[in-house]
Design goal:
Number of helices of chain B: 0
Oligomer: heterodimer
Radius of gyration of chain A: 13 Å
CATH topology of chain A: Immunoglobulin-like
Order of helices and strands of chain A: EEEEEEEEEE
Distance between the termini of chain B: 41 Å
Shape of chain B: globular
Number of strands of chain A: 10
Number of strands of chain B: 11
Largest interface: A-B, 28 and 20 residues
CATH superfamily of chain B: Immunoglobulins
Helix content of chain B: under 10%
Mean pLDDT of chain A: 94
Structural class of chain A: mainly beta
Chain lengths: ~110, ~110
């Protein structure tokens, strides 16, 4: 039974470059969430997809951040013109109605 | 505003001693409360949710609406309980979680 899968597991890039992070949710999970965890901090919500509804983007920290989801499957989180403060672990979670969220292993993003 | 506070960054206890990880919250309405745990080199996983009222790995947590608390307790700590523990809340339905900053539990043999 596959859980939530995220790729890459680690990403090192130079300041100013764009990065794309991928999340494969658990099959059948209609809801998908992206969170960010900076060093020493709790998880902060970024964006949430629920079925075919418009995504809740209220947690995105700037317009450099965007995310897409194809139907009820894969999602990509894109960060344009990366800054050093974007260094963090980016976590994806998925859930089905009324059930708790299941998390992936995360992508550790380091901006040099 | 929605907020989860875990006042202790680090909690060290001896094996066999009782454990209490504190969690207080602020939320207008009726939230769902959760405890998530992250063991070394593993992904974040659900430990407890208040609506199921289960005891998992000997841990329990009771929602106290008067004190807006959801403290996690275990009567006798084990070395394998050493991990990072996060308290979180959400509204009803599949809404995003609001997390506390986490407490690292270290159980000393």
């Amino acid at each position: 039974g596959a859980g939530v899968s995220q790729s890459p597991s680690n990403k090192v890039t130079e300041k100013g470059k764009d990065v794309e992070l991928r999340c494969d949710p658990i099959s059948g999970h209609t809801a998908l969430y992206w969170y960010r965890q900076r060093l020493g901090q709790g998880l902060e919500f970024l964006i949430y997809f629920q079925g075919n509804s418009a995504p809740d983007k209220s947690g995105l920290p700037s317009d450099r951040f965007s995310a897409e989801r194809t139907g009820e499957s894969v999602s990509t989180l894109t960060i344009q013109r990366t800054q050093q403060e974007d260094s963090a672990v980016y976590l994806c979670a998925s859930s089905t109605l009324g059930q708790p969220q299941h998390f992936g292993d995360g992508t550790r993003l380091s901006i040099l | 505003a929605q907020r989860v506070t875990q006042p202790e960054k680090l909690l060290s206890v001896f094996k066999g001693a009782p454990v209490e990880l504190k969690c207080n919250y602020s939320y207008s309405g009726s939230p769902e409360l959760f405890w998530y745990v992250q063991y070394s080199r593993q992904r974040l996983q659900l430990l407890l949710r208040h609506i199921s009222r289960e005891s998992i790995k000997g841990f329990t947590a009771d929602l106290n609406k008067g004190e807006t608390s959801f403290h996690l307790k275990k009567p006798f700590a084990q070395e394998e309980d050493s991990a990072m523990y996060y308290c979180a809340l959400s509204g009803t339905g599949n809404t995003p979680l609001v997390f506390g900053k986490g407490t690292r539990l270290s159980v000393i043999a």
